[in-house]
Amino acid sequence: VKQYIPIWFREGMASVTATQEYRRARPKRIRNFLRKYKDSKVMHLPDHHLLRTKQWMIYSVSHWMFVYLLQKVKVRGIQQLMAAMKRGATFEKAFRQTTKQSTKQFERAFREQLERAPQTLHSSFLKGKQQRKFSVRRDCILSQIFCSSKAFYL
């Protein structure tokens, strides 16, 4: 069984845990990018052309969406989401259980946040010891999920 996990979650988690904020576009620039591509599937499964030509922006969007998710559910929420997937829940179901909203609602809220106050997106709450702790937990949880019987569509 293959499971779909949105690119923004996969790449955002990788970028945040690798502390790559310095390599990403600022939230205001992302807001402008998403305005231009408002009807595309940028946040889920961007087409190959967009991924090839705007890769840096796709990874930047992913980074800041994951930061936004962390601001909402904290590290514990991410752990709960991933644990639910390990038990067999789809990403959408696990996401809804954790955040109390669908991924579409979350994406809409993210875009609204960028329009209203992009400066409020920051990952300063994940610094030092907490950053290392999150990275270790992420690696442990990911290895548990990927070693289970489920295969993931990445």
Structure in a nutshell:
By secondary structure, the protein is mostly helical. It has helices at 7-17, 27-36, 48-53, 55-86, 91-99, 103-116, 128-146; strands spanning 2-4, 151-153.
Q: Can you tell me about this structure?
A:
- The protein has 154 residues and is mainly α.
- The protein contains 7 helices and 2 strands, in the order βαααααααβ.
- The chain has a two-stranded parallel ribbon.
- The longest helix has 32 residues, at 55-86.
- Provide the helix percentage: 55-70%
Distance between the termini: 13 Å
**Structural class by SSE content:** mainly alpha
Instruction: Outline the low-pLDDT stretches.
Output: 144-154
Choose one word for the global shape.
globular
Strand order of the largest sheet: 1-2
Number of strands: 2
Counting copies of identical and different chains, the oligomeric state is single chain
Mean pLDDT: 77
Task: Report the β-strand fraction as a percent range.
Answer: under 5%
What can be said about the biggest beta sheet?
2 strands, parallel
Q: Helix tally? A: 7
What is the H-and-E element order? Answer: EHHHHHHHE
List keywords for this structure.
7 helices, two-stranded parallel sheet, 154 residues, disordered C terminus, mainly alpha
Write the layout of secondary structure elements.
Elements: E1 2-4, H1 7-17, H2 27-36, H3 48-53, H4 55-86, H5 91-99, H6 103-116, H7 128-146, E2 151-153
Parallel strand pairs: 1-2
Helix pairs in contact: 1-4, 4-5, 4-7
